[in-house]
Amino acid sequence: MNKLLALTLLAMSYAHHANADTLLQTADQEGDFKTFLQAVKRAGLESTLNDKGPITLFAPNDAAFAKLPKAKFKALMANPTELKKVLSYHIYPGKITQADVSAGKVKSLEGADLMLSVTDGVKVDNVKVVGDEINADNGVIHIMSAVLIPKG
Fold first, then answer.
1. Which one is the CATH code of 21-144: 2.30.180.10, 2.40.30.20, 1.10.700.10, 3.30.1330.200?
2. With 80 as the cut, is the pLDDT of residue 98 above it?
């Protein structure tokens, strides 16, 4: 009986790793990132978020996208090049968990620095991170309360 249990647990463990959830799949399963996922597809960044990582994704939820002025949102969605620049600014090519966050700059995938702060909660460019981090097999998602716009 113990051998059967051990083999079953081993098979379950293997099956979990065989069906690894990437950042893209995890965001899709969460359900509060519909606008973000639509933007990722339009910008052609699916392969980036499915990459092996580790990747830290500062993902604006649907409420964050709703805060953008409608004209700004429509202009972004109509311009895949600009959209890719904005979304790449939300990606850090490395893993930063909430426990690991320290004040300072990190370079986004877009190339510009993201300013992290830990005073009064975790913030990225003075935008508050909300809720708990969401772990995926290739990185971590931090939920942003607003869309980050690179300067310049």
1. 2.30.180.10
2. yes
